[in-house]
Amino acid sequence: MTTAAEQPSGTEEPSSTEEPSGTEPPHVFRDAMAAVASPVAVVTAMDDGHPHGTTVSAFTSLSLTPPMVLVSLDNRSRLLALVRRTGRFGINVLSAHQTELATAFARSGPDRFDGIPWSTSHELPRLPGSASWIAAEVQEYVTAGDHTVLLAHVTSAEAATGGPRPLTYHQRSFGTHTPRAV
Question: What is this structure's pTM?
Fold first, then answer.
């Protein structure tokens, strides 16, 4: 593990490509994980006044005291390289009506923000209509297989008024959570 202060800008920690014995083939693991409903968010960062972002489903709260979040980004991600330089990112937890945003930010290419309304909050790109917004500063980078886990302190958090339903991803489809009647 490397703290944000120890990680040189633009460098990656070596990751092991050797699989442990008994490892399931990737398609079997993907199928198993498709059974897990995950929240959907767009992680954003700013580079010289230009917004950047990508869709993620691997994020969660990590600690209440101090408030921390965990986000996982692909090691090849341009956003990861940017976050390594700036040490900051935003999390736009998407609402159920934001499926098109999730799809747009999941595509590859440099112009994901083209035609997408956004504003700046805490000097980070923020998408309107999200269920919640979090700004965070990276404390630690953990290389894990083909991804890097960002452990970050929350510097700002805000839930949307009216409690919009969250966008979720389950069985390779977008949906939402519906509370059970008690």
Answer: 0.81
